[in-house]
Amino acid sequence: MFLTVVTLGIYSAWAKVRRLRYFYGHTWVAGSNFEYHGQPIAILKGRLIAAALFSIYWAASHFIPRLGTAILLILMLVAPWFIARSLMFNARNSSYRNIRFGFRAEYLDVLKAIWPVLLVPISILLLPEIDYEQTKASVSDLWIAFIPSLVFAAIYPYVFGSLKRLHVGRSRYGKTPFFIDVEISSFYLIWVQALGIFIVALMSIPAMMIPALFVPLLGPLILFVLYMFVWSAIVAYTKAHTANLVFHSSGLGPRITFGSTLSAWKLARIYFVNAVAIIFTLGLLIPWAVIRVARYRAEQLKLASDGPLEDHLAEMSRDVAATGEELGEMFDVDLSL
């Protein structure tokens, strides 16, 4: 963090490589750990590209909002290429037992997965422009301003689920492909349930604020605790259930399947304690918090093998050695943040 600040963000690429190598090296499956091979220069190139594109969008949206929205639409049309390159880079630079992972998808494959996000800038361009400098906003103006958010909320589960299916379904370990069998409706169900939890929590807050009527100074503290708890519960519920869904629906080759037993309640407690610790230490406990989450998620993952796992891994190693590992394109730019 110190080197990232004093170099105005340039060292962040080296920091990312150090962090990923540390986490990969300390994540073990069946007696072997993972390895990360990405180079900082490739990540720095990607971040410079991302920073340039963001600067163009920010400048346009700040001075000419409509132009900024149009540029955002163009960037979203280019986004599938960014996503494909990033997933290829990260897969190609990850390995387990000296065998590299891989990912292959074309521009149109990613576009099919994320196309609904185009509806957000399109809806903004089609809606009448609101003058935010006027002293009073009408009810219709408030609804118009809220429509893009509603569009985003409606399409988010689809885009999230589609990207998960694309990511897993187009990935491979050496020559062996992964597979996933899950419906988009399952992701929508998780988000609808999370919305229900949020509504119930919102309706319960007034009753929870009753102690503040007798001790006014408790009001801000209770609101803070309630906010952090609700936030932790919603995030934990969606992350735990989506992870369980994806892993239970995935496998590697014909004889290896995965599983996840994350508890939304336990994950919520971890998030809540992490958030409080980070706030009260001004960020010093971020590493501690990140490791707590990573450890819990890893400990709840399962791998089931139809037969001895060592035999399957040895067979995959022979396949790669016999045919030569497919290097394909040299992915020398990481466009992921």
Q: What does this molecule look like?
A:
It is a single chain. The protein has 337 residues and is an alpha+beta fold. The chain has a domain at 1-182. It has helices spanning 2-6, 12-25, 40-63, 65-92, 107-114, 119-126, 139-169, 184-208, 210-214, 218-248, 264-280, 286-299, 309-323, and strands at residues 28-29, 32-36, 94-96, 99-103, 171-173, 176-180, 250-252, 256-260, 301-305. The protein has a 9-stranded antiparallel β-sheet. A hairpin with a 3-residue loop joins strand 7 (250-252) and strand 8. Helix 4 (65-92) packs antiparallel against helix 6 and helix 5 crosses helix 7 (139-169). The two termini are 16 Å apart. Mean pLDDT is 86; it is low at 323-331.
Summarize the structure.
This protein is of the alpha+beta class and 337 residues long.
Strand ordering within the main sheet: 1-2-3-4-5-6-7-8-9
SSE-based structural type: alpha+beta
- Biggest sheet statistics: 9 strands, antiparallel
Task: Give the averaged pLDDT, no decimals.
Answer: 86
H/E order of the elements? HHEEHHEEHHHEEHHHEEHHEH
Overall morphology: globular
Tell me the fraction of residues in β-strands, as a range: 5-15%
Cα-based radius of gyration, to the nearest Å: 23 Å
| Number of helical regions | 13
**Number of beta strands:** 9
Q: Layout of SSEs?
A:
Blueprint: H1 2-6, H2 12-25, E1 28-29, E2 32-36, H3 40-63, H4 65-92, E3 94-96, E4 99-103, H5 107-114, H6 119-126, H7 139-169, E5 171-173, E6 176-180, H8 184-208, H9 210-214, H10 218-248, E7 250-252, E8 256-260, H11 264-280, H12 286-299, E9 301-305, H13 309-323
Antiparallel strand pairs: 1-2, 2-3, 3-4, 4-5, 5-6, 6-7, 7-8, 8-9
